[in-house]
Automatic annotation (TrEMBL):
SUPFAM superfamilies documented for this protein: Voltage-gated potassium channels (SSF81324)
CC annotations in GO: monoatomic ion channel complex; plasma membrane
Protein origin, superkingdom: Eukaryota
A Gene Ontology molecular function term of the record: metal ion binding
Catalytic activity: K(+)(in) = K(+)(out)
Record-linked InterPro entries: 2pore_dom_K_chnl, 2pore_dom_K_chnl_THIK, K_chnl_dom
GO biological process: stabilization of membrane potential
Chain segments annotated as coiled-coil in the UniProt record: 33-60
Residues spanning the membrane: 12-33, 90-111, 117-147, 184-206, 212-234, 246-266
Record-given protein name: KCNKD protein
Amino acid sequence: GRLNADNARFLLLAVLIVLYMLCGAAVFSAIELPTEREAKERWEERLENFTRRHNLSRTELRLFLREYEEASVAGIRVDDIRPRWDFTGAFYFVGTVVSTIGFGMTTPATVGGKIFLIFYGLIGCAGTILFFNLFLERLITVIAFVMKSCHERQLRRKGVLPHNGRRGSGTSEVDSLAGWKPSVYYVMLILCVASLIISCCASAMYTPIEGWSYFDSLYFCFVAFSTIGFGDLVSSQNIKYESQGLYRFGNFVFILMGVCCIYSLFNVISIIIKQSINWILKKLDCKCCHRCQRKLLRSRRNVVMPGNVRSRRNISIETDIVNESDTDGRRLSGEMISMKDFLASNKVSLAIMQKQLSETANGYPRQMTSNSKQNGFSGGIGALAIMNNRLIETSVDR
């Protein structure tokens, strides 16, 4: 039933996700592994040259570099950057927490900060996800309102609706939009266009201010807006910018709008994935049902059938009816059948009926003659007996 369908959908989605991850791992490994090996070889060569030039032990140098890595995690960099935990830095941090971006360039180092982050993130992330869902609902309502308004404008131009018609208010207006919900593909197209426009505009801002290439800016926009948040590129981390206040405000607005659009786009794409999974399961279920019906049809070939040659018929998967004989198939399809085929396919039941009619008419059980034994239901009374005797005469004459 319903539970089995949900389980099948869950298992199929899990298998598809695993296959998707395996394919992604293979592609990224093939693309990035050679570059990683080259970078490691260059680093080992530089490290060897540095230790030889300055007469240092490689062990001492590695210990020093490991200490710098720990300092880097705490927010210390070689270049001058703004303080991580002043108010503006902390506000940027909580923004990455509640939006689930989590760049990783700023993390709490104290036990109290880590404990507070657990409870703060639990409520903040839940509230922000609710905000994103409500944003998607409002977006769909706006699209429906625009679609309805455009349709009404076209009707007014044609003179079907009066130009001074008043709109309903409150609940009636919301109910009137129920039939104007846009298609999921239409919403996906709008969100894709909106996300692309926001990313292009944000990249045009990041490129000159942060000093990134335009492609790196687009890459940062996707990583940030999709809440993946690798942290290899993070905006607004320098101490000073030109028009610093305006830039930080624009950075906040772009990230907020981008996260809303991309998160909503993910929700819409998940609906399309679910529809695709349902379609795959339906196709698999139809094939299984078709095979089962064929097996059942083959197993029923030993029942009493007309003597003529049966023709194979395609079984429709739209119905649950299994044609047990060619006579039944022709009856369901509306074709004419001969009386001989009808009598032959119902031989047993007609024989019992003829026997009961004969006993009822004569008041005693009839003795079956050799002809009766041979035919099975000859020697009866009524129209069926007359037709049966006529068929026997015809077969004898032949």
